[in-house]
Amino acid sequence: MRYLIPLFALLLLASCSKEDAFQIQSPDKKIEVKVMLLDGRPAYQVFYKQQVQIDTSYLGFDFQNQPSIGDGLQVEKFTMSASSDIWEMQWGEQSRVKNEYSELVLTLKESGEPGRSFDLTFRVFDDGIGFRYSFPKQSGMEEVVILDENTEFQLTGDHRTWWIPGDWDIYEYLYNTTRFSEIDALSKFIPGDHLGQVYIPENAVNTPVTMKTAEGVYLSFHEADLTNYAGMTLQVDTANLSMTSELVGNKASIKAKLSAPFDTPWRTIQIADRAGDLIESKLIVNLNDPNELGDISSWFSPMKYIGIWWDMHLDRKTWDYASGRHGATTEYTKELIDFASKNNIGGVLVEGWNTGWETWTEPDQRATIFDFTTPYPDYDLEEVVRYGKEKGVELIMHHETSAAVSRYEERMDEAYQLMERLGIHSVKTGYVGTIIPDGEYHHGQWMVNHYQKTLDYGAKHKVAINMHEPIKATGLRRTYPNMISREGLRGQEYNAWADGGASPPEHLPIIAFTRMLAGPIDYTPGIFNPSLKPYVEDHPVKTTIAQQLSLYVVIYSPVQMAADLIENYRGNPAFQFIRDVPVNWEQTKVLDGEIGDFVVIGRQERGTNDWFVGGLTDENPRSYTLSLDFLAEGKTYIAKIYKDTPETNWETNPTAIDISEQEVTSADQLSFDMAGAGGFAVSLIVK
Ligand code: NOJ
Ligand code: CA
Q1: Would you say residue 455 has pLDDT above 70?
Q2: Protein residue with least CA distance to atom 6, ligand 1
Q3: pLDDT on residue 14
Q4: Packing angle between helix 405-422 and helix 381-391, nearest 10 degrees?
Q5: Nearest Cα to Cα of residue 352 among 310, 378, 318, 394
Q6: What is the pLDDT of residue 17?
Q7: Mutation to probe ligand 1, out of 309, 400, 466, 490 (largest number of atoms < 8 A from CB)
């Protein structure tokens, strides 16, 4: 075997023995990856601070009509390199991102027939690793059907794991906190739930899945740059403490159909010894391609929004017109536009504006019910857009597809042209129900390509997309900055549904360290009437107003809803925080936190020296001392503090809030006593 070894590669190379082992380190040398061929089988190991975190794990694929690949391989060539640069986030948790890593590219080739080859690329960053497979153009791979990808992750202990089941259709679950060996995804299957939109074929988990080892190392497994491929769940082997990629397929048992050359998404492992570092990690976006759309700021900027939405979830109004309680009227929309324009809120979402909602879940009708262009008679679309523009407020379009994706694809041309003609620059899409065409699942390759199509149409017609019932975020917002936000978790709406069950308080300090590692979340915070009375009885949201305010900082999204009815905001002094809080950040610091217990995040507004801090706790009351040492030195700030009072109690007195103001500097500290399910929010404005 002949190697071409550039000098710098030799220096980087810790070992390259006869058994074909390659070792690369992160720039700070704390993470090390060893990639090997063991008897012709590719495998890798991952070390953190010299301790093995991922033990020998094999790699390979099963194909249709050709042999599996994964043994009988030899190293054709390899390259090692290092890269470091900084890129600008057009909008985001921070304005600049450092992208620094060591890279190993191994070209592997089968020594026997059929002699296929592929590249394995490993990138090792200070905050984790990513690796992907690339199949070059070669004969026999003009059409490839992947029946399975067999990427293993061999754990080194029975870690504490925060997981949701590997459902192929929906991520809207509460997280489970168990030992790895106790993962039992199949027990989470509720037939018929979410209009049949549930399918859990294996004991597998969806990603990001986050773990903590006995030694206190945090690991989170996910993927980056998921394009033209199937979403990856991780099948769990509870006896061997290992996971194997289980791609989402379709009813024809096909996982992905491709044509070489192609790359798989990156398989990622974030590694940290502080839980908050997982949130600060930029591994996922770094493993995506640079911006392909250029500067979109002339038509999309981050914004807060209100909407005709919670009304329907409380069943005070309806999406449909026939009920006589139709929400989306011209008059009500104008009322919201007026409220938004007076309160530093940039957008108004209107759901139920278009015909079809009377029968949108009917099995025999949903396939063709929506056309996405015809408003109900009491909704003058052109007029509300015009009125909004006059008041400086954008209308946010809504496309609920009822998961009739073939229908949506037929109608997209007209629907996106309509938005462009009216100057509507964002749309909330939705995919409730099982996918039409039958045979596809929300997280499979066919849908991954559909979601991509909405981004492409959006780019063409200057529309940014906020997807509900989406494919998970994998960092594509870097490449396509019109991919603004998505649901893809159990959001606030569940708290309104008596039969769904209000989420337990630990949900929020878990999603911050799991779902949020993937990307922006349209959680829809800001419920100021947690009792939900008089619309919903005996089913309060398990929260306090101070905690709802904290979510505007804790949860990152470039679009943040103030979800409650505007009558619950009018005259409430706590609303000042929502007026003031920005949606675009210069930098983010996760000040403290423990998964499932609490989290405190500080973010500096982009373009100013002002800071905003949010902290929240699970069901346990918690005292927290906030050191303000992140503030600019030598400046005086006006701190406006919103916190739970000694009387605040999510069950009996959730609206009690203490609001005060004081001058502070970076030398000061602030103390908080959070109620159970409570929190705090602070704005720190330079004097
Ligand atoms: C589910 C979405 O999550 C929710 O926000 C929306 O209101 C309904 N679907 C109707 O489209
Ligand atoms: Ca949903």
Answers
A1: yes
A2: 430
A3: 39
A4: 50
A5: 318
A6: 43
A7: 400
